[in-house]
Amino acid sequence: MAEFLKKIIGMTKDEFISWLHESQGSLGNYLLKILLAILIYFIISDSLTSIIRKVLKKDEDPRSRQIDQSSRVLAVILYIFKYVLLIIVLYDIIHQLGIVETSPSVTLLVSGGVVLLLLLTGTLAKGIRKLARYLNRLARGEDIEYADITDTKKRRFAGLSMHSGTRRSIFRLLSFLYKTAGIVIGVALALVACRGISYVLESKGTDISHLLALPEYQLSREFQAEFRWDKELPDKLPVKLGEHVEVKTNGDINLIFVDGSFTAINTSSRDYRFYEVGINQSIRSSLRRTTFRYENTSKLTQNTHGNYSDSYIYCNWSDNNCLILTVNNTSNRVASLTYIRDLRAVADLLGVSEY
Predict the structure, then answer these.
(1) Is 278 in contact with 213 (CB distance < 8 Å)?
(2) Are 271 and 101 in contact (CB under 8 A)?
(3) Is the full-model pTM beyond 0.85?
(4) Closest C-alpha to 111, from 24, 102, 22
């Protein structure tokens, strides 16, 4: 563990960004990224709150602090700025970690919703705690004093007598509130857990099997995007196809050229499926649901994703094509899809044979 932390601390900026974007790492690796993201978010949130409190002088005695219209306007502006900045921070965290693989507008909406939910839950929690505290003290017969920030006078609520009907009503109300709060929290946690499990287990996306054999210009038209050369992508592909490999990409779909010939298509995006196989789908479910017809299968011995994934090749020699599933060996789920358009041209490179 110490060696791993030392390695993380010693990373360069480019290495750190590459580590953040890596999708084939171990489960512990991904949890560390999530914990780091949570830590960064709350450090920024607490820092902004501290700055705002100093600007508004909230640490002073409320009875000696002047409250005017300009102070209220300044407070509103500062808190709006804080939450807009937090939405931007959360958007970048979600984008960097690939937690929500969808359009930027949806990611921004999710970010705003999370920040709003945190704001509401925080405010409600404070209000409920304060109300419960006051009701408990009243029910125990204690007097309550508080100072209004607009007035230097103290106001007092008299405690309730031990045998009053109001005291019994408050205890019944408190009991009801505690039970209701428990149920609400339980339901909320169950819903969040269901959504989380659904996201982890479900594999969605548009099946583009009918497009995989099309030439590049037709693919550009179908995806309504231009494919551009990326010199770094060949080293990041899940399988090695020789030394003379070039890749064009639109960000989600990678077109692989071997010796200048358009040979394969690859994706690691949840937006697309090959032959009803999608990213994050379990390998067992993939083999059960796939519409790809294959004659034999084997595990590839070469892999560019290190110790965290394995690639399996499903060959159809009759049609001269194959489907390669790169599977995370921690979760046993599909991490990348590669469709080979000309199997015989790269059979030796993949280490497979027709006979």
Answers:
(1) no
(2) yes
(3) no
(4) 102
